[in-house]
Write a structure and sequence with these properties.
Its cofactor is FAD. Helices cover 41% and strands 18% of the residues. The chain has 26 helices and 21 strands. The strands form three sheets. Strands 3, 4, 5, 6, 11, 12, 13, 14, 15, 16 and 17 form an eleven-stranded mixed beta sheet that branches. Strands 1, 2, 7, 8, 9, 10, 18 and 19 form an eight-stranded mixed beta sheet that branches. The protein has a two-stranded antiparallel ribbon with strand order 20-21. Strand 9 and strand 10 form a beta hairpin.
Length: 694
């Protein structure tokens, strides 16, 4: 244990790794391949290139996986609905697309076993004739997968379906079909691909944007050819040239921006579509069973999946503008909630306030510039080599990133005569997967004194690299756990993960809450509470000034507020200027009087507002103690004008929103209600953090 403690006190070099990569970019005379874009496809291209022994560089203007690749449904799948279309329309191209995706699904589960796993998904059936119809389709899905079928699908009776998914609506249910697809931690998977490329010798740099493409005149043809890019370090503002024989455009929704840098006359090929997802508490779904709604009210498909002990529901599919900061729309959130209500038992109240996080991802649908019909959406992906030699890969899906990268490099090698041989990425284990085993977490508990839940999380997030994270964990000062201070009490993320994140090229607090950990995607309120500690740890490691720390904190809060759905919480509370109850209740003034009296039990001095002092005084009377910082956080949730106090009107708005289900499990509402009930009894009150909706 003494050895472990001494290791945990070691600090990492601040930005030496990042600077080393930037220096390699600037000092290398010429790369074989320069990949622009650090999403799944771009990182896959870099890994494919470097493992062909090509000198490879990758630049990303934001963070790795900061765009669409971190905002997916978290599924690794072949596409059940695509197979249905292939069969119904006798479409061979669609069939081959599903077959390729199923092959890639199997490969991805093999090369990153710590980040991915098979997931059973239930398809509930409410009409007898649909049972054989869906069964035949799902069995065909198994057959297409062949030897790479994860597990055979099966039919369930009504009683067995309800036993496995007790939240399901039982009225008119005739049975269910269960099939298997894969699930993964998308942002961590993307990062693992990029880190694996770096381990094999690629120079990768996030927060490095392309200002313009470099060109030179080809001596043989007299035409201009792309020969690299002028890049800018987003953090420092420094600009430099990166020269390369081949430049690959893997920028997802921003495909057309780089294509127009190449040739201003190029027309747009990207037709972006927004997909919104929401996260609700884990009790909405079983721990290891997803749900598929194959026919929503408007014809879309909705998935309802357990993920990281929460439940993901989505997605939508609506045209959108291209932006680096997509915002989930309230109408999309409510659409998903309504569809969820259609499939869950009436006993389960689906509340708007149970939405813990919400995000929008932009799916880069594309038209093929090589096709005669340039207006027709390409169902798969396209690889295009321009007259100047710019190689563009666009479209496709997360699951097929590797085969897309292979096809892209094949085209690049042929167009630019790069050599290097065939792709070697099938079966190439990703970062963290080499030393992982299902029982690895037990060693973390035994060797380092970590909590069981924390150890399982570290093993499932970092694989064999979890030991490096554990070594950085600080002593808790408690009997148990010995090391590993949590960032927030209800999630297994620990402080040493912030320190390790810098080693994984994290440059901002947003990188940590959104992509190194997934806290921002799971619960925005918890992420908001963890931010000061995250900024403090990163500030010490990266030598941030007070001004820089403030900027980081504000930027991360803005990210949570706009892009992760935190704004919705305030809107639920401020939608009306006064409490709104149903007609009979308003007439009798029963609830308003009850809530007002409850408020005045805390506001003894009739100030019209309450502070932490008022709440603490009442809690002392009933022998309850709450940490002062925790109490500040509880009041801050309701303090809409951020003046350090909660006015009567704010409290009434809160209770109105709670009653309507727009806000669920408010800590202040629960605290004041239980305190009121305990005042006469003078008994202890247990105040547990609820999870807090947005």
């Amino acid at each position: 244990i003494l050895i472990i403690f001494s290791l945990s006190q070691k600090t990492m070099p601040s930005q030496k790794q990042i600077q080393a990569q930037l220096s390699t970019l600037q000092d290398t005379e010429e790369f074989d391949v320069l990949v622009v874009g650090g999403g799944a496809t771009g990182s896959g291209c870099a890994l494919d290139a470097v493992t062909r022994n090509l000198k490879t560089a990758l630049v990303e203007r934001n963070d790795f996986s900061s765009g669409t690749s971190s905002r997916s449904t978290k599924l690794i799948h072949g596409g059940v609905r695509y197979l249905q279309k292939a069969i119904m329309k006798l479409d061979y191209e669609q069939y081959m697309m599903v077959k390729e995706a199923l092959h890639e699904r199997s490969n991805l589960l093999d090369i990153a076993p710590h980040l991915s796993a098979p997931l059973p998904i239930m398809l509930p059936v409410y009409k007898w004739w649909q049972l054989p119809y869906y069964w035949a389709g799902i069995k065909m899905y198994d057959l297409v997968a062949g030897g790479q079928c994860l597990k055979s699908s099966y039919v369930l009776s009504k009683n067995k379906a309800l036993e496995l998914f007790p939240m399901l609506k039982k009225d008119k249910l005739v049975g269910a079909i269960v099939y298997y697809d894969g699930q993964h931690n998308d942002a961590r998977m993307n990062l693992a691909i990029a880190l694996t490329a770096a381990r094999h010798g690629a120079a990768i740099a996030n927060y490095t944007e392309v200002v313009h493409l470099l060109k030179k005149t080809d001596a043989g043809t007299g035409k201009e050819k792309v020969c690299g890019a002028r890049c800018r370090d987003v953090i420092t503002g420094n600009e430099f040239d990166v020269r390369a024989k081949c430049v690959i455009n893997a920028t997802g929704p921003f495909t057309d921006s780089l294509r127009k840098m190449d040739d201003g006359k190029n027309t747009n090929i990207c037709q972006p579509s927004a997909g919104v997802h929401i996260v609700i508490p884990g009790y909405y779904s079983p721990d290891n069973m997803g749900l598929l709604d194959p026919a929503t009210s408007d014809g879309r498909v909705i998935f309802f999946l357990p993920w990281e002990k929460m439940t993901i529901a989505g997605t939508t599919d609506t045209p959108t503008d291209i932006t680096a900061h997509p915002i989930p729309r309230e109408e999309d959130i409510n659409f998903i909630l309504n569809e969820v209500r259609n499939y869950l038992s009436p006993d389960v109240e689906v509340r708007r306030g149970d939405v813990l996080a919400a995000w929008s991802g932009i799916r880069p649908l594309v038209t093929d510039p090589n096709s005669k019909d340039t207006q027709s959406i390409c169902r798969n992906h396209i690889v295009n080599v321009s007259d100047s030699g710019l190689v563009t890969i666009a479209g496709g899906k997360w699951t097929t990133y590797r085969s897309m990268a292979e096809e892209t490099l094949d085209a690049a090698v042929a167009a630019h005569r790069l050599g290097g041989g065939p792709s070697k990425t099938v079966g190439l284990v990703l970062e963290g997967g080499q030393d992982w085993s299902p029982t690895l977490y037990i060693r973390l508990v035994q060797d380092y004194g970590l909590e069981n839940e924390v150890a399982q999380h570290l093993a499932a997030t970092y694989g064999g690299k979890a030991f490096d994270v554990a070594k950085m964990a600080r002593v808790t000062g408690k009997r148990w756990p010995i090391v590993g201070n949590r960032l927030v009490s209800e999630f297994p993320y620990i402080e040493s993960e912030v320190r390790y994140a810098v080693k994984e090229y994290a440059c901002t607090a947003i990188d940590v809450i959104a992509r190194r950990t997934r806290l921002g995607f799971l619960n925005v309120q918890a992420a908001d509470e963890a931010l000061p500690r995250i900024v403090d740890i990163m500030g010490k490691m990266l030598d941030w000034s007070d001004k820089k720390r403030t900027e980081e904190l504000e930027a991360a809060k803005k990210f949570l507020y706009l892009e992760m759905g935190y704004r919705s919480r305030s809107e639920q509370l401020t939608g009306t200027t006064e409490i709104t109850l149903d007609t009979q209740e308003v007439a009798n003034s029963v609830l308003i009087d009850r809530y007002t009296n409850r408020f005045h039990k805390f506001d003894k001095d009739s100030k019209g507002f309450i502070t932490t002092v008022d709440v603490q005084r009442v809690l002392q009377n009933i022998s309850v103690q709450i940490d002062e910082n925790a109490l500040h956080e509880i009041l801050n949730e309701v303090d809409l004008n951020k003046n350090g106090q909660v006015e009567l009107n704010e409290f009434l708005q809160l209770m109105s929103a709670v009653k309507k289900g727009q806000v669920s499990d408010s800590r202040l509402a629960i605290l004041m209600k239980t305190a009121e009930e305990s005042l006469d009894l003078r008994g202890p009150v247990t105040v547990d953090r609820s999870g807090g909706g947005v």
